[in-house]
Every structure is written in C-alpha cells, then in structure tokens.
Amino acid sequence: MKMVQKLGFGANAVVFQVERYEHAQFSEFKTQKQYYALKVIQKSKIKCCKQSIDQIKEEIRTHRALSQCESALKLHKVYETANKLYLLLDYLDGGNLSTFLRKRDNIKESNIKSIIEQLLLGIHFMHQQNIVHRDLKLDNILLKSNKNGKYEIRIADFGLATQLKQGEHRYDKCGTPTYIAPEILRDGELTLKSDLFSLGSIMFNLCTGQYLFDLAECKKLIIINQICDLSHIPEKIKHLSQMCQDLIFKLLNTDPEQRIDCQQALNHQWF
C-alpha cells in the first residue's frame, strides 16, 4: 500500500489517499491499481479518553451495519498496530459537497433532486436500524460523477453516529452549527428526525449557495441556531419550484413532532 496524498485531518486522525494493487477477476491483467482513503488514528490521542474510544468503536460498528447501504461510504478493512488504528475506506475523487458548491454559481434543481433523493435513501437505511448520524453537513457528503453526468454521493464521517436503543432517551448535544436540529440545542431529545433538519439545511445550502444561519462567531451562531428563526427562508428560495420549497419547509420544521420523516420525504411530490 502506497500513500498518495493527505486528504484531511481531525483531532484524533489523519486521512490519506492510498493506492494498492489488487487481483482483477475479469481482466487480462493479473492486478489493477485501486485507490482508497486510509483513516489513521493515533492511539496515544484517544487511550486516555473513554468517550473517544467508544466513539471510534461506534464508528466502526456503524460502518459495518451500513455495509449494504449504497449511499454510505464503505469500510473495507480495519488494521491495528501497537500505536495506530487504520480504517480503509472507499475513495471518491469528486471531493465533498462543500467544495462542489464553492465551484459553482448555481446548481440545477434536477441535480439537487438527485443528490437529496440519494441522501434520503441513505438516511432511511440508517434510520431503519435506529442509527442517527448526528453530523450531516456538506463536508460529510462525498461526491463522484458518472459518465452520464449524474452525481453520485456517499454519506461519510460516522464519528458521531449512534444507534438508539429501544426505550433509550438521549439529550447530549453534538453536531455542527447551522445543521443542528434546534430541539438538540434546547435540551430536547435526540430522535431520528434530528437528521432530517440537518438534511433540510443541506438542501437549503444547495438551492441557495448560502448557509441556513451564517455568522462568523460560533457562540452567536449556536444561539441563532437554537432560536431558529426561519423568516428569511421564503425570500431566499422563491426562485425554486413550489414542490421544492414545500419539501425544504417540511424538513426544516422546528417542531420534531411535525417534521417530515424519511419515508414521507421519499414519497414527496417533488420526486
């Protein structure tokens, strides 16, 4: 396995693009080059923190539970040494949705529809197993483009994902401001529908090129996210079709009881 380039890093890990040669079953060549993403976790940075260790175990369990989900990034192997933990993942050469959005002045509604539908299918697969991602955002959606121009996406970074147990009530706060469901910041209960608000924020991003709440200071941003005044939304999305606007409003409903769920969203008239 050969390191190609560094793709990114976080508090406890670095991600590299790597290449390796594999046996090709249906080819005249014995081996072919394949690219992967390798997440390298330093044990020294997590061994003193039980929460971090538990999160990594949960991340691996989540990947394995989603191995049959076409919209989720695939985990191929886990390697372990005395000092490091390695997660070998799919590599997508299209970057993430944040980079994709920065390179374009606008995206066709038909392309946004394809992306949102794929995300919904992936989230629905997770929710059928009571898995909540808890950090859906542009940076965690990876992209590749097929020859026919259709954008394929993969949901990535399951570091905060958790599986809700039957009868369990969770009130812990986590996620990224502008994407966090307001009930989480109001000491409300974490539910599967918390992910749907995040999806609504992503959809707003893609449709307008703007964040749902856009302030430089994170502390103020969290307060604004908690208050969740959406009175500016109608003006920002008035150029969209009526059905597209309707789905955005239903995903961004500040009342989780009234917010649309995955199955309802997939059955929406916009699709």
UniProtKB/TrEMBL annotation:
Keywords: ATP-binding, Kinase, Nucleotide-binding, Serine/threonine-protein kinase, Transferase. GO terms for molecular function: ATP binding; protein serine/threonine kinase activity. It comes from the Eukaryota. GO terms for cellular component: nucleus. InterPro entries: Kinase-like_dom_sf, Prot_kinase_dom, Protein_kinase_ATP_BS, Ser/Thr_kinase_AS. ATP binds at residue 39. The keyword Isomerase does not apply. Pfam families: Pkinase. Residues 1-271 form the Protein kinase domain. PROSITE patterns: PROTEIN_KINASE_ATP, PROTEIN_KINASE_DOM, PROTEIN_KINASE_ST. Belongs to the protein kinase superfamily. This is Serine threonine protein kinase. It comes from Stylonychia lemnae. The lineage of its organism: Eukaryota, Sar, Alveolata, Ciliophora, Intramacronucleata.
